[in-house]
Amino acid sequence: MAESGPTDRLAGLDSWYAEGWKGLDVAVLGLGATGFSVADTLVELGSTVTVYSTDAPEDSVELLGVIGARFVQTPLDTVPSALEAQAPDVVVVSPGLPPHNPTVRWATEHSTVWGDIELAWRVRDKVVRGPVAAPWVTITGTNGKTTTTQLTTAMYAAEGLRAAACGNIGVPVLDVVRDPDGFDVLVVELSSHQLHYMADSGDGAVLPLASACLNIADDHLEWHGSAEAYRAAKAKVYERTVLACVYNVTDEVTRAMVEDADVVEGCRAVGFTPGIPAPGEVGVVEDVLCDRAFTEDRQKSALELATAAELETAGLASPHMTMNVLAAAALARAGSVRPSAIQSAVQAFRADHHRTELVASADEVTWVDDSKATNPHAATASLSAFPSVVWIVGGQFKGVDVDGLVERFGPTVRGVVVIGTDRTPVLEAFARHAPSVPVLQVEAADTDQVMPEAVRHAASVARPGDTVLLAPAAASFDQFGSYADRGERFAAAVHEHLGGNADGDTDGLPDQGA
What we know:
Blueprint: H1 6-10, E1 25-29, H2 33-45, E2 48-53, H3 58-67, E3 70-73, H4 81-86, E4 90-93, H5 102-110, E5 113-114, H6 116-122, E6 136-140, H7 145-158, E7 163-167, H8 173-177, E8 185-189, H9 192-196, E9 210-213, H10 221-224, H11 227-235, E10 244-248, H12 252-260, E11 268-272, E12 281-285, E13 288-291, E14 303-307, H13 308-313, H14 319-334, H15 339-348, E15 357-362, E16 365-369, H16 376-383, E17 389-393, H17 403-409, E18 415-418, H18 424-433, E19 439-441, H19 447-461, E20 467-470, H20 483-498
Parallel strand pairs: 1-2, 1-4, 2-3, 4-5, 6-8, 6-9, 7-8, 9-10, 10-11, 11-12, 16-20, 17-18, 17-20, 18-19
Antiparallel strand pairs: 12-13, 13-14, 15-16
């Protein structure tokens, strides 16, 4: 009898309890948090697992040995000979590895490639609290994903449901689906990388209860290869949605994505807008956030969701944060969350650190950390929130053009402090669009000295009434461990510079952004 091939072995792997997981030969590429969760899950399922990674935390490598997975430390910019010899049934790729990576290309040609999201969807029924596995609400966008994911989760929780925020937000989906207590709903933040590797059809294709792409601006072009590929990956969030595709009325690209999506029959398109909502939308009427999408008489009436005053108290009053609240509310209403629960969630919500977060105020100068502004689109939101800015900018621009951002805001800033290794685009843009604005460069190469020097430069040009704003418009990995590390070092440098002459009260801070 002919031996079954890899495709045959994967048939029917649509449940945690499928027999086919036992003995499945799997290669996992990458050993970050996602890669470890994949390996741990597959070992628990009874699969044979080998993890390949260029480097990995020592404790993760040790744990692989404990759980019974094999580890091969090897560069992935060439195809490992051990992987070729293994000839695995399936290769699970960590989202950090781009599709043009040689090892990923080899896997695509010689095996079946999954991402962690596909694996999680296939085994989502391990713990079931109701008649079926917990539904998924999926969220993506260039900016605002994390805040919207947190808000949506809080709204479902306020309804009395056990809700989990997971995915790109930092908690692997596979850890959540294996939680012994289970969940009623999963709110899954998806990066463009994760979306790229998601299945288009078959047992591993996600069917979200509701989905949203919050906005689109060019980002991660070096990973995807083009703006078109990036947008195509983002658009996958809407595919096979069951109840509601939530889109940004002010962003025509997201509307087009919904129009082009292949969804379950009966699924609705629901817009969110900063203005007065049309029937089928959520929006704002006279300082009240309201729902004209999920009410019986949406032609003539609307349901109150929250007030502008409540958003102000929660640090959600800026335009971009208000849009995040509206998107989250639409996703929650799609799951039958009551308006009163949405209002309660808004009242109790507080934004994360490093999102237009007040660091200190002294001598009439305010210091604000928006290290989470890792691309020009995000930096636009924070720069728009303050009338007079000393701007700290720079890092890894990921192939994104910063010229338009500098053209818009450069002439109006008090001064600019440039950090990062990829500073030529910023310097050239200021020379073109704002040649009279003082430009100060941080020369320190030592990570410990970058922010102290940046703070000294900023303080030298700041005047009473100014905001010194860390809004890098770039990724952090050239000089820092993460955007959080960058923001924490900025805050520490500010406090060191100001000594005891600082006020950390948040009163008067215009907003907290995403």
